[in-house]
Design a protein that fits this description.
By secondary structure, the protein is of the alpha/beta class. The chain contains 9 helices and 12 strands.
């Protein structure tokens, strides 16, 4: 059973196609990179998979663990329950800066505890222990009672991952989680995502603006251009020359200057080159 399947999903913003009949399928436990130049549709696709945006009427469906979260431009009646299975990591961290880190992590439980307890901020000792354990696991356990605003960007992103662990998410959607981080912090965040994928079997889809991280961490990459999937295959195929064929001058956004090619990740999927794409080198 795929963790995510998207069938003929389209979205217009005004007169512009943000997504054009997108099709894809991602298996449980995969860590997949989503790449593309600015305006390619990465964030839009992630928001549709999460059920945070509705596609065009009659445009198809997005499914999570074989249950439709939206179809024909309408959200499923049980979309809220389905979102319990989905943790979303945003570029802006989405932590409440004035609250302690541990309280931000406990927010991950709100879909699984009685509404009155969540409204009053009443969490059991066991729930607090769960949150502390999740923070320790991602390497920021000692910061549990600090205000979120005192953490660095990388520490806040790891706290956001801890929130998804407490939520017991089976699917983690990370929308450019390292875009505003320095290289060392970016590596720690990507290491953490790779660890929870490998050790917990959580499916991870991570939108990336720099392809070096896709090559290093993700066996499979899906590339978008103008709202269309133009490549779906092994990240090792994404040489700088191939990216230039796919994106032309826009490829400069995706390639770190003077960055050496990393050792290719172990591939779990055969390459699929889609309409409009160049042929990947052998």
């Amino acid at each position: 059973m795929p963790a995510v399947s998207v069938d003929r999903l389209s979205k217009h913003f005004g007169g512009r196609h943000a997504l054009k009949s997108v099709n894809l399928s991602i298996g449980e436990g995969e860590m997949v990179a989503l790449i593309g130049a600015s305006g390619s549709g990465k964030s839009t696709l992630i928001r549709h998979i999460a059920g945070l945006e509705r596609a065009d009427a009659g445009s198809g469906a997005a499914r999570i663990f074989d249950r439709a979260i939206q179809e024909n431009g309408r959200l499923a009646t049980d979309a809220r329950a389905l979102r319990r299975e989905v943790g979303v990591i945003f570029q802006q961290f989405n932590l409440v800066s004035r609250l302690p880190v541990i309280v931000n992590v406990l927010v991950g439980l709100l879909g699984r505890i009685p509404v009155w307890r969540g409204t009053l901020g009443l969490f059991t000792r066991e729930e607090k222990q769960l949150a502390r354990a999740a923070l320790t696991r991602v390497g920021v356990g000692e910061l549990a009672w600090q205000r979120a605003s005192t953490l660095s960007g990388g520490q806040q992103q790891r706290a956001a991952i801890a929130r998804a662990l407490v939520q017991r998410a089976r699917l983690l959607l990370a929308d450019e989680p390292i875009a505003s981080l320095d290289p060392a912090s970016a590596r720690r965040v990507m290491d953490t995502l790779a660890t929870v994928c490998r050790e917990d079997g959580i499916t991870v889809i991570v939108s990336l603006h720099q392809v070096e991280y896709a090559r290093l961490y993700c066996p499979r990459t899906i590339a978008l251009r103008d709202g269309t999937v133009v490549f779906d295959g092994p990240s090792s195929a994404l040489t700088n020359a191939f990216l230039t064929e796919l994106y032309g001058e826009a490829s400069e956004e995706l390639i770190l200057p003077d960055a050496p090619l990393t050792e290719p990740a172990r591939v779990r999927a055969e390459p699929v080159i889609l309409a409009g794409a160049a042929v990947a080198p052998a």
